[in-house]
Amino acid sequence: MVNGPMVKDGIVTAADARSYRAFLSYSHANERFAGKLHRWLEAYRIPNRLVGKASPRGTVPKRLTPIFRDRAELAAASSLDHEVRTALSQSEALLVLCSPAARASRWVDAEVALFRSLYPDRPVIAALVEGEPADSFPQALLQPDANGVVHEPIAADFRASADGPKLARLKIVAGLTGVALDQIIQRDAQRQLRRVIAITLLTVLLTLSMALMLIFAVRAQMEAQRQRQQAEGLIEFMLTDLRQKLEGVGRLDVLQTVNQRALAYYADQPNLKDLPADSLDRRARILHAMGEDDQKRGDVAGALAKFREAHRVTGALMDAEPTDPSRVYAHAQSEYWLGYVDFIEYRYDAALTHFAAYRDLARRLVKLRPNDRTYLRELGYAQGNICSVAVTRKRAQDSVSECGKALATMEQVGRMAPGDAGVQQDIANRHGWLADALRVAGHDRQALDQRTQQADIVQGLLRNDPKNASFLEDWMLVRYSTSQLLHALGEEQKAEAMSEEARDDVDKLIASDPENNDWRIWRRKFDNPFN
Fold first, then answer.
1. What is the mean pLDDT of residues 246-275?
2. What is the 3-state secondary structure (H, E, C) of 225-245?
3. Across 146-224, where does the E strand assignment appear?
4. Residue 263 exposed, middle or buried by CB count within 10 Å (0-12, 13-18, 19+)
5. Strands 6-8 and 11-13
6. Residues 334-386: pLDDT tens digits?
7. Parallel, antiparallel or unpaired: strands 6-8 and 124-128
8. What's the CA gap between 484 and 461, in Å, rounded?
9. The model's pTM
10. Helix (H) or strand (E) holding 287
11. Rounded-to-integer distance, Cα 167 and Cα 493, Å
């Protein structure tokens, strides 16, 4: 064993002067392949269970670094020949990329010859990149040593028809470490299996985490939807049953509070555009209800603003679903309320435009659902509104015709829903408007007959529900209107008595709900009933 420095072929060497795991020799034609193999070898980690074990090449290292590659290592070298010789003298092994181009390269052949002359006992690994061995191995690989012995190099065949890239790389690792190839393959396979298992477990954990997150998100969404359904179910009750009961006792102040609480729910939503269509429809109905209450309190501007916003929303919803009866119905209500505001503000042309649109939508509803009495009732309301404009404008022929149509439609609804108090109230109202139309046409006796029929219906309603504010209002109005007719027919004493009774009735109504502006307007009319 050599213990001190020695000189061989002009190069100073030492037994422990090993700076490189291997010297990579290749032809310039194979430079790309050499670069990829060089990076793979230096990045490769020896399986942990092999690291530190003894082998014919010494202790098995963790990594195969560094590996000398002349093009990379000598880019700034001043003397290529000297640096190559030095690197070869400091390498534990020689790795030769064999190809027809390498066989033709005198530099590759020289590097093999020099390494073998320096270290005959160190491994030379031939990596066949392309071609057949006889056409690809440099001559120096097959030359006998000083003793005439030909040292067959360790071969790793990268060709797909032979070892293939994966096995060829592991053969190189085995040659550089001195570990048996089967151990390298086995340990590498175990490591790959552990890696696959780890990745699989990580994937499963990530999948489970995402599934849990999705479950939580779905549950949160379902809970939010459930809470919204509960809240909107309460709002639906506030808009229907509760509102009807409050209207029945004439409490506008409570109605206003209920509507504000309902609308506040939608104001708290982060974005109204994200609400379902049914929620937007319900919000529009709240605006209708609040506008109606504003109008009854005399706040016409506030009512109009709410009706316009509701009209915008219901119009968009109907445009999106033009054959959905609920969307058509909602927009019909918006047309009605805008027309009603114009009507009470004496803008009769504008009112008639909205009322005509309301009637057309009601006709569409009846066409969509011919047997639905709710939609037929809407048509009766719409015809009644056009009747009201004609009566107010004193157009005799139009008045009697339109009011007669409205009464006939409502009576048809009554035959479909016998005993329905609301429908009976509507029929009574239609008799009243037909009476007004007959007065415009100069038929006072026929008008009185209509008022008598109206009074009979309202009295029947009050017998069943004597405290209903809406029925009491109708009774007050029918007596006031009948007193007007009696006075016109010369029955002045009877007219005065009936007018006084109507005045007492409206005073009682105002006392029950002082904020009702409609009742205050009627009370002022009673101060001079026959002027």
1. 58
2. HHHHHHHHHHHHHHHCHHHHH
3. 154-157
4. middle
5. antiparallel
6. 999 999 999 999 999 999 999 999 999 999 999 999 999 999 999 999 999 99
7. unpaired
8. 23
9. 0.54
10. helix 277-296
11. 123
